[in-house]
Write a structure and sequence with these properties.
Elements: H1 2-17, E1 21-26, E2 32-39, H2 51-61, E3 65-72, E4 75-81, E5 88-93, E6 99-105, H3 114-118, H4 123-133, E7 137-144, E8 151-157, E9 163-168, E10 175-180
Antiparallel strand pairs: 1-2, 3-4, 3-7, 4-5, 5-6, 7-8, 8-9, 9-10
Length: 189
C-alpha cells in the first residue's frame, strides 16, 4: 500500500513538473517492471499577445500606419491607416495572434491623416519609449491630434497593478508627459 502511494506521488510530481519521465510499475508481488514509456507534457499554446505583437500582426494583414491599439478583454482592437492616408482598417487580434478584419474603408480624406502618416515616431516606437520610462504592459496606444500639438497617448499597466499614462512626442519619441492613476478610476472616466 505504501509503495503504491510512493509510485503515485512520484508520477504526480513528474506530471506536475511537466518534464519527460520514464514510468515504472510495481506488481502486486513487489517486483518492479520498468515500462519504457516516456510521458511528455503537451505543447503549451501561447495566448498572451502583447500590444506590440498585436500591432505587428495587424500591419502584416493591412500594411500602413497604426493609429491605435486597445485591449478589450483578451482581444486587441487595432486601427490602421493606409500609407496614402485614404484607407483605414479596423482589425481585431486575438490573444493567440489571429487577425480578423472588422471594417475597411478606402475613401478617406488623406489630409485628415497627414500628421499621423508623416510622424517620425510610429505607434510601435511610442510604446517602446513609454515602456523604457515605466515598466509594465502596454494596454492602449492612440494617436491624439485633438489638442494644439499631436502626440501618442500610451497607457501602461504597471507591475504594481496601477495604470501609468504617458504622452510621447511624435517627432522626437521623448516621453513628454506622464502621470500615474490608481488601479481603478472611481469616477468612471
Amino acid at each position: 500500500m505504501m509503495r503504491a502511494r510512493y509510485v503515485c506521488a512520484a508520477a504526480s510530481a513528474v506530471l506536475i513538473a511537466g518534464a519527460p519521465a520514464t514510468a515504472a510499475a510495481v506488481s502486486a508481488d513487489g517486483v518492479r517492471a520498468d515500462a519504457a514509456r516516456t510521458v511528455s507534457a503537451a505543447p503549451v499554446l501561447r495566448v498572451d499577445t502583447t500590444a506590440q505583437e498585436a500591432a505587428a500582426a495587424a500591419l502584416k494583414h493591412y500594411p500602413g500606419v497604426v493609429e491605435s491599439v486597445d485591449k478589450d478583454g483578451s482581444v486587441w482592437h487595432v486601427d490602421v491607416v493606409a500609407k496614402d492616408g485614404k484607407g483605414h482598417a479596423e482589425l481585431e487580434v486575438s490573444a493567440a495572434g489571429a487577425v480578423t478584419e472588422r471594417n475597411r474603408d478606402t475613401g478617406g480624406n488623406a489630409a485628415e491623416n497627414k500628421a499621423l502618416v508623416d510622424a517620425k515616431v510610429t505607434a510601435e516606437q511610442a510604446m517602446k519609449a513609454a515602456l523604457a520610462a515605466h515598466a509594465g504592459q502596454v494596454t492602449t496606444v492612440e494617436w491624439d491630434d485633438d489638442d494644439n500639438a499631436a502626440s501618442w497617448h500610451v497607457e501602461i499597466q504597471g507591475e504594481d497593478g496601477k495604470t501609468w499614462d504617458a504622452q510621447v512626442d511624435p517627432a522626437t519619441g521623448k516621453v513628454t508627459g506622464s502621470g500615474s492613476d490608481s488601479d481603478s478610476d472611481s469616477d468612471g472616466n
